[in-house]
């Protein structure tokens, strides 16, 4: 198979490196890709949201399959456009992608089908939202823009003042653009947070190993929210018993709900879960692989990824036996100093070999480019340094060992990835 992957981050690099192990794969392409990805796949300069451009590139390359990895092209309907041209696309169609594209849609779906989630109210008017907040006396409370907001559309308000400000900035100042024309105000949930990515063909759902993201920029979960500063898999909090409960109360009901709504979901459905004292609840759905969750989940996969993608597209997922390595994986993100706010790019990176890799770890490039044979930073998150190990401790030692040998000016990384998980495992 010739496979074209859409996207340009660490997640796409992880998908491509896993596909490069497949016996089924002849040639790998990526658009737009990045420096590190270009060492494993031929890259093009068609933007990830350019539907016509991607369809025509896929035709020109005679791609047998296109993997649409990011949320925005999926929400725009890229998978439908490819399928209409007879090109196999891994990723949900527009109607199914709305499960991530609209928080109002996903909350209403959960309510209608009794899928456990935080209690909530929907507003399309700032005055009504503020009147609701004045009556509410339970804080913190969570204010969410309806649409896609680059993963930043969630504000946790500690008191009425902050909540009212959040409503005004989302609905009137439009800090998240049109994503904020509606909003959800919901109950604040507590408990360990776990990410569960699943493969689904709309009929069968197969969970991958669980993982945990570390979203804040600084150690001890301080600092600003980021796209994710590191991940570990599996999560020690996600026991076999909880996994079984999630399958029965969340995963299967969600797949069936989407089918019943005429929005059959085919692709990777990501469940962001809170393991609350009253049971697991859904915080959010993503219509795609998580970033940086993918970077710790796929290294543990022991089944050909191209076979799985094909089975999902052909609605034959139940025919495949998906196996996982009995190991642990960790990924430490190296970011540009200042991320997620202002940072420099074009900074030279040392410590990587010709393939952009290093000993002991897999290096997933998130924001790099090559020029004159040298590797430079080109984004906020630069590299994801990942290792597998027999224990989580061993995996983290390898990841951090490799991080210390990679250098670029003002590089920033968290030193406590996996700390809470390690304490739980011990
Ligand atoms: P999201 O952009 O939906 O991934 O939300 C970002 C983060 O906000 C999540 O990873 C949670 O840590 C937090 N969050 C979202 N909703 C809630 C909630 N109802 N209660 C507590 N934390 C939440
Ligand atoms: N790591 C969470 C996400 O991909 O949205």
SSE layout:
Layout: E1 2-7, H1 10-19, E2 27-32, E3 42-43, H2 51-60, E4 65-68, H3 71-76, H4 78-84, E5 88-90, H5 94-101, H6 103-112, E6 120-123, H7 126-135, E7 141-145, E8 154-157, H8 160-171, E9 183-187, E10 193-200, E11 205-207, E12 212-213, E13 216-218, E14 222-225, E15 230-233, H9 240-260, E16 267-276, E17 279-286, H10 294-297, H11 305-313, E18 328-336, E19 348-349, E20 362-365, E21 368-371, E22 374-377, E23 381-389, H12 392-405, E24 411-412, H13 419-425
Parallel strand pairs: 1-2, 1-4, 2-3, 4-5
Antiparallel strand pairs: 6-9, 7-8, 7-9, 10-11, 10-16, 12-15, 13-14, 15-18, 16-17, 18-23, 18-24, 19-22, 20-23, 21-22
The structure holds adenosine monophosphate and glycine.
Glycine is lined by residues 151, 213, 228, 286, 290-291, 293.
């Amino acid at each position: 198979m010739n496979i074209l992957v859409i996207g340009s981050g660490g997640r796409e690099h992880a998908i491509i490196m896993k596909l490069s192990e497949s016996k089924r794969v002849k040639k790998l392409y990526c658009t737009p890709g990045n420096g590190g990805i270009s060492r494993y796949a031929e890259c093009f300069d068609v933007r990830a949201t350019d539907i016509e451009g991607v369809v025509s590139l896929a035709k020109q390359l005679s791609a047998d399959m296109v993997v649409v990895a990011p949320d925005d092209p999926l929400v725009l309907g890229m998978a439908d456009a490819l399928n209409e041209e007879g090109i196999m696309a891994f990723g949900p169609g527009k109607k199914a992608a709305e499960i991530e594209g609209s928080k109002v849609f996903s909350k209403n779906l959960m309510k209608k089908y009794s899928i456990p989630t935080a209690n909530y109210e929907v507003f399309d008017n700032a005055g009504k939202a503020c009147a609701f907040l004045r009556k509410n006396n339970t804080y913190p409370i969570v204010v969410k823009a309806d649409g896609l907001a680059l993963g930043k559309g969630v504000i946790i308000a500690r008191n009425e003042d902050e909540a009212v400000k959040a409503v005004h900035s989302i609905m009137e100042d439009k800090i998240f653009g049109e994503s904020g024309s509606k909003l959800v105000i919901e109950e604040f949930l507590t408990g360990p947070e776990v990410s569960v990515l699943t493969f689904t063909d709309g009929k069968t759902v197969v969970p991958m190993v669980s993982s945990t993201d570390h979203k804040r920029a600084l150690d001890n979960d301080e600092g600003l929210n980021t796209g994710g500063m590191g991940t570990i898999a599996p999560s020690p909090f996600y026991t076999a018993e909880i996994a079984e409960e999630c399958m029965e109360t969340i995963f299967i009901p969600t797949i069936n709900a989407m089918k019943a709504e005429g929005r059959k979901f085919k692709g990777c459905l990501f469940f962001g879960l809170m393991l609350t004292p009253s049971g697991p609840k859904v915080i959010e759905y993503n219509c795609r692989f998580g970033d940086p969750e993918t970077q710790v989940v796929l290294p543990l996969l022991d089944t050909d990824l191209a076979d799985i993608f094909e089975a999902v597209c052909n609605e034959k997922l139940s025919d495949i036996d998906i196996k996982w390595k009995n190991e642990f994986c960790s990924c430490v993100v190296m970011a540009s100093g200042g991320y997620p706010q202002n940072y420099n790019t074009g900074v030279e990176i040392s410590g990587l070999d010709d393939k952009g890799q290093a000993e002991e770890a897999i290096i997933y490039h998130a924001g790099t480019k090559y020029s004159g044979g040298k590797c430079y930073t080109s984004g906020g998150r630069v590299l994801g340094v990942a290792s597998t190990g027999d224990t989580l401790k061993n995996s983290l030692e390898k990841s951090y060992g490799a991080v210390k040998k990679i250098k670029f000016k003002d590089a920033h990384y968290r030193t406590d990835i996996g700390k809470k998980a390690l304490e739980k495992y011990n």
